[in-house]
Amino acid sequence: MKLIPDKQLSILTIIFTSSIIIKTKMSYCLAIDGMQPESRRELHKNYHDNHYGFPIHDDNELFGRLIMEINQAGLSWETILKKEESFREAYSNFEIEKVAHYTEADRERLLNDPGIIRNKLKVNAAIENAKTILSLQEEFGSFEKWLEHHHPKTLPEWMKLFKKTFKFTGGEIVNEFLMSIGYLKGSHAESCPVYHTVLKHHPKWYTK
C-alpha cells in the first residue's frame, strides 16, 4: 500500500479506531484537505484545482503530461509533481521537436540528472514517443487531432491503441493520461466543485 495518496479514482485509507482496522475508500478530491504539511496540500491542490481533468490544447503540453504519467509508474504522483519543473528543464520545456532529435549525449545527460527519474526505459520512451508524435502531427495535423480522431473509445480500446502507437504506455498510464486531459471520465467526484468547473471547459468525455 502506498503511504502517499495518488490521483486515482480511489485510494485505500486505513484508519485505526479502538484498535480495529477499518478500510475505507477516499477519493483524490477528498484526500487533499487532510494532507499535511500545508506545502504538500498546496502542491496537490494546485494540480487538482487547475490541471487535473482539464482539456489541454497544446501539443507540447500534452506530450509533457504523457511524460509525467509515464514517469509516475511505480512511484507516487507527489514525487512527479515535486519534480515537474525539473522535468520541464531537462526535457526542453516538453518541446516535441527538440526531444525527438535528442542525441545519445542527451540520453546520458537525462540518465545523470538527479532532478528527474533516471530510468533508462522511461527516458527512451520520452524520446521515442516524441518521434512518434512528430509523425502523428504530420499525418493528422497535431497530436490533439490524433486523439480527437480516435475519440470516443473505451479504456480497453484506448489501451490497445496506445500500446500499438507508443512506448511504455501500460493500462494505468493510459487511463490516468486520458482522465487527466479530459478524454475519460473520473478525474473528479461529482460532489467536487472542480468537477463543475471542468465541465465548463468541455472535456471530451462530456461532449462525445
Question: What's the main sheet like?
Answer: 2 strands, antiparallel
Helix and strand pattern? EEHHHHHHHHHHHHH
Strand tally is 2
Q: Distance between termini?
A: 36 Å
Q: Quickly name the level 1 CATH class of the domain at 57-201.
A: Mainly Alpha
Proportion of strand residues? 5-15%
Rg from alpha-carbon coordinates:
18 Å
Q: Overall pLDDT, averaged?
A: 89
Shape: globular
Helix content: 55-70%
Which residues form runs of ≥5 with pLDDT under 50?
Answer: 1-5, 8-25
CATH superfamily of the domain at 57-201: Hypothetical protein, domain 2
- The CATH topology label of the domain at 57-201 is Endonuclease III, domain 1
Q: From the 3D coordinates, which CATH architecture of the domain at 57-201 would you assign?
A: Orthogonal Bundle
DSSP helix count? 13
Strand order of the largest sheet: 1-2
Overall SS class = mainly alpha
GO biological process, one term: base-excision repair
Organism: Chryseobacterium geocarposphaerae
Protein name: DNA-3-methyladenine glycosylase I
Binding site for Zn(2+): 48, 188, 192
